Amino acid sequence: MTSPVTVKDKGLEVALPSGELAYFNHYWLRDNCSTSFDPETRERVFDIFHLAQPPHPSSAHVANGALEIVWSGENHTSRYPLGWLESYSKGERRADPAELKRVSWYGDHYPKMARFAHADLMADRQLVAQWLRAMLVEGVSLVTEMPDSDQALTDLVKLMGQVRPTFFGDYFDVRTHIAPTNLAYTAKALELHTDVPAEDLAPGVQFLHCRANSVEGGENLFLDGLAVANDLREQFPEDFKLLSETAVPFYFEHDNQDVRARQRVIELDENGDVSGVTISQHMADVFDLPQHFMDRYYPAFCRFGRMLQADKYLMRFRIAAGECIVFDNHRIVHGRSAYSATSGDRYLRGTYADRGEMRSTYRALTSKGRFA
Ligand SMILES: [Fe+2]
User: Of 209, 224, 251, 331, which residue is the least packed, with the fewest Cβ within 10 Å?
Assistant: First the structure.
């Protein structure tokens, strides 16, 4: 069976099985010949920079459901299945199995929060896929029945990726410290925040493994920044615009460290949808923006900060020893009320992983990819 192909100056037109006449650029076709990719390393081994002439077909036709091109000036034939061409014909982004619709949650989320037992996750990769799905959609989950060991936390992180260090190191211990460098290391109330915005790329996924919690007070506070940001967008669009477009400075300065980065309080993804928030009163640097701009920025910033504290959004609970709360650090805002340091033990051990690695693991567990 043959089908018409029209070779033009910079590309060609080919009739797809859908009946649509689609255009493909010659460079793109030559670059993406299946032989461009090493089947073992799966990396591109063809180097388009070294073509002597712009690629041009000496002949092109459709046979057996594929476009076949013989390239002029090269002893090379390329074959492209029409179904594969069709998936790129509209210039749309490649479908991403990890791009799931985010679902906002509110103050009543605690009983509904996705829960998985540590041993079950260790034993079942399909359960890991469900766990990561909950993380991508809701941004928070609770892992229960954690063994009382450092290794249990590392093992959990490794199910989705690598331990991601920050300037605090690979792991951090949240308990009362004698010379604290951070409010978390005291018994005082910890206002609502996301972690480590002073880094260029704040860590993506946070793990807090509770090893002991017998103190009075110290209620955990979590909220979905996405829910609040979307409400702000609806009710106060000008404020939303300011917070999603303006980068403000964050810092951490101690001893040999002078860490600085600028972040937008509301983070948008490539589609313009809210994908996260960055909020940290204790790491916010002096805003170095024009003073007249502050006239508009501060009221918007404060409105958002007050909205975060509304009961509508706040999930309150007490994390118990043996539980690990896992959450998207770019989306979920957390804090705790003050506790009495002398009333018992409180020890949370934490670490981070990357969002990108979490998405990678989810894709690998749920879809075939390009080389299957
Ligand atoms: Fe924190």
Answer: 251
Q: How far apart are CA 346 and CA 212, in angstroms?
A: 5
CA of 367 to the centre of ligand 1 (A): 33
Give dist(CA 78, CA 12) in Å, integer: 14
Q: How remote is the CA of residue 159 from the centroid of ligand 1, in Å?
A: 22
Rounded to an integer, the average pLDDT of 142-166 is 98
Cα 194 to ligand 1 centre (Å): 6
Quote the ligand 1 centre to 283 CA distance (angstroms): 11
- Gap from CA of 333 to ligand 1 centroid (Å): 8
Measure the CA–CA gap between 248 and 258, rounded to whole angstroms: 16
How many angstroms separate the alpha carbon of residue 335 from the centre of ligand 1?
A: 7
pLDDT at position 36: 96
Q: How far does residue 337's CA lie from ligand 1's centre (Å)? A: 12
Question: Is residue 96 scored above 70 in pLDDT?
Answer: yes
Does residue 179 have a pLDDT over 70?
no
Question: What's the gap in Å between 193 CA and the centre of ligand 1?
Answer: 6
Chain segment 185-217, per-residue pLDDT in tens: 777 777 899 999 999 999 999 999 999 998 888
Name 281's bridge partners: none
Indicate the pTM of the whole model. 0.92
pLDDT per residue over 53-82, tens digit each?
Answer: 999 999 999 999 999 999 999 989 999 999
Q: Residue 2 C-alpha to ligand 1 middle, in angstroms?
A: 63
Centre of ligand 1 from the C-alpha of residue 334, in Å: 6
What dihedral do alpha carbons 126, 132, 136, 139 form, nearest 10°?
140
Q: Using the mean position of ligand 1's atoms as its centre, give its distance from the Cα of residue 197 in Å.
A: 11
Mean pLDDT estimate for the chain: 94
> Residue 336 corresponds to which amino acid?
R
* Side-chain half-sphere CA neighbours of 190 within 13 A: 25
Strand bridging mode 205-213 / 346-353: antiparallel
Distance (Å, whole) CA 44 – CA 17:
28
Distance 130 CA to ligand 1 centre (A): 25
Q: What's the CA-to-centroid distance between 184 and ligand 1, angstroms?
A: 7
Q: Residues near 356 by Cβ (< 8 Å), separated by ≥ 6?
A: 204
Two tokens, residue 372: 């299957």
Report d(CA 21, CA 15) in Å as an integer: 4
